[in-house]
Amino acid sequence: MKSRSSRPKNVSKVRRDVAERLLRNGATIKSPKPDDLSAADHLASLGLIDFGLVQVVLCADPEDADFGRGHRNCAGRIVVAHDHEDSKAELCCPVCDRRIYPDHYDKRRLTELRPRVSRDGVTKYCQGLLAEVDPSFKAVAEGAYRLGLGGAEIFVCLIDFLTDGMYWSQTWAEMNPACFVAVNPNHARFGEGEWLTRVSLAELVCGEVVLRDALQTAAAKGRPRGPNMAVALFGKGPAHTVVEPQRPSPSGRQFVVEVGPNIVRVDGETVVPANAKPRHRVFRILWQWFLDDLRSERTPEQFRAWTIDRLIEELASQTGKRETDEGNVRSLINNLQNTIAESLKRKSGTPINREDIVQSCRDGYRINPFSVVARPFQPDLS
Ligand SMILES: [Zn+2]
Questions:
Q1: Distance of CA 75 from the midpoint of ligand 1 (Å)
Q2: In the chain, where the domains are located
Q3: What's the predicted TM-score (pTM) here?
């Protein structure tokens, strides 16, 4: 990285580390500083992101008068809607299900900045940069472009948006001069190798890297030869949102799941109890979709994962109340995954991963089609 003083010509409006944090779709920036806010404005004016500022209260905040009423180390962050009124106050902690009264107990409100990366905006912005190098550049696949550079041909790949597997294979990268651009800098798990040219969108936006220079460097590099020709460079598929990585279960592991009117059992043990209504509601929605896929005779690979937006829509249609904050729904699902695994381990000692029942996929969530076995709910007759 060049130091600030070495790039006097390209005075940037945004610091690179700040831009990098904002270009992670679905990220949360707690108590944003003026730098974060002005950078968010700038990136939004370039069309790269849109963002929201939300007010949250903490379930367990030592500065609040209700500290100690719930778990003292609960990590729940509860969003308070802009139109929140005291009379309507009945919020629920997505982690411990405790009722939260944001207008009582002097509960401290914190601000969070939630950026969403605009795929269209990023694509347009990058196409603008490409046009400066070669106005007749061509899109050759989703997220992949071919352009001319001093009579030679070079590719630019927006790795977050690539869908054609060819472009993230090492073999292809070794055969073709290319520059890989990462929107979310954490997404790219680049292999070692001086031969690979990679830049982050943040570096381009901040002016730390000029695309034409990066392309010239890429074109001038030799191709490597190594024993690992078929190794994938990146995780496969488009990465657009910050989600837990997909971890497959050890093969052959099976869990019998029963979904009742207000509880969920795994291998006969209650893992979502009757008092955990929000968790139960989310589980039932995923369960219905799972059953639909089962009925349509899909293979496990084809079982659909549901985006957070789709889940929010479905929840709204069932409860008549729209959850305005996707972070709340994400924590609810994280909590669901953790509590299912923890309670099963505690009650029966069964080895289980947190993704064996509810699985996080790259584009959403689903009931894990590899390890879940459906069974009709057995009413408790005891
Ligand atoms: Zn809590």
A1: 6
A2: 7-117, 119-236, 255-374
A3: 0.59
